[in-house]
Amino acid sequence: xxxxxxxxxIKQLQCFVAVAQELNFRRAAQRLNMSQPPLSRQIHALExxxxxxxxxRDTHRVALTGAGQAxxxxxxxxxxxxxxxxxTRLAHQEDAERDIRIGLTSVLDFSQFPALxxxxxxxxxxxxxxxxxxxxxxxxxRLAASQIDLAIVxxxxxxxxxxxxxxxxxxxxVVALPAQxxxxxxxxxxxxxxxxxxxxxxxxPDNPAFFDRxxxxxxxxxxxxxxxxxxxxxxxxxxxxxxxxxxxxxxxxMLAASRVGVVYRELAPTLQRRLAIDxxxxxxxxxxxxxxxxxxxxxxxxVEHGRYRVT
Length: 311
What we know:
Elements: H1 10-22, H2 25-31, H3 36-50, E1 55-57, E2 62-64, H4 66-91, E3 100-105, H5 114-125, E4 129-134, H6 136-144, E5 150-153, E6 163-171, E7 173-178, E8 188-189, E9 199-201, H7 208-220, E10 227-229, H8 234-242, E11 247-251, E12 262-267, H9 269-275, E13 277-284, H10 290-301
Parallel strand pairs: 3-4, 3-5, 8-12, 9-10, 9-11
Antiparallel strand pairs: 1-2, 5-13, 6-13, 7-11, 7-12
Helix pairs in contact: 1-2, 1-3, 1-4
C-alpha cells in the first residue's frame, strides 16, 4: 500500500472536528486538553494541506465554510472508524491488563476532596486507573459509548439509559472578589452586596443544567449583575479579579489556588445551599469487570459533605 505524504494527521482531524462541533475555539481547546494557539495552528496546517478554507473566524463568530461542512462528515467518519478499530483491539485485551478509565469533571479540584483523592491515588498507584478531565456532558456521552468506565461529574440535564448514579460529594460556591471591594469586609456575602460588580460567568453550553439552576436562583434574588465571559484559564481569571475588573462565583475546591489581591467569602447560608454543586459518580449498570466494580463501590462509600470553611 502506498502511503501518501499528503494525508492529514489524526490530531489535525480531531482539532477540526472539535472546533466544527463546538463552533468555539476556547471550548474546543478545553475539550482536547490543549491551549488555543496550538489548536489554531493545527487547523491552519489542515487548511494548508487541503488548500481550502474550512472555518471562517472573526471576533464575533466561528462558522464552517461549505467545504468545511462537507469535510466534517468525512472527518467524523474517519475518526469513528479509527475509534471503532481501536475499541475492537482493546476489547481483545484481558481485563487485568486494561486500565480503568475514569472521567473527572474539569471544573473541580479533586485534590481538595481527601477521601475521593485518596481512592483515586491508590487506584493510579496500582496501575489500575487512567484519568481524563472534561466537561460533565462530554463525560456522560463517553461513558454511555463505553469510551470510559466510570465518571465523577457535576450536574447534567439527562442521564442516558443503562447508567447508574449516586451522589458522593458537595462543593459549595464561594465569592472570589478583589481585596479592595467593599464587600470584602464581610465574612458572609449576600448577592445584594455585589449586585453592581461585574460577574465572570460561564456560557450555558458548558453545563446547561447547572447554568439554569443558578439563573433561577439569581432571578429569585433579583441579582442581575453585568456579565463578563469567564476566561478559560483559572490563573487569568484570578489576575483579572485582583485587578478589580470583576468577581466570580467559584467552587470552594478551587480555593487551593490563591492569588494576592483576591479574597474569598462565603455566601449567605440559604444561597450556599441552593448554589452548591452536587457531585455524582456515574457508571454503566452492566459493568462486568471486577476491578471497575470494586472501584465503583469504593468511591460510592467515600461520601464527603460540607468540609469547606473560607478564611
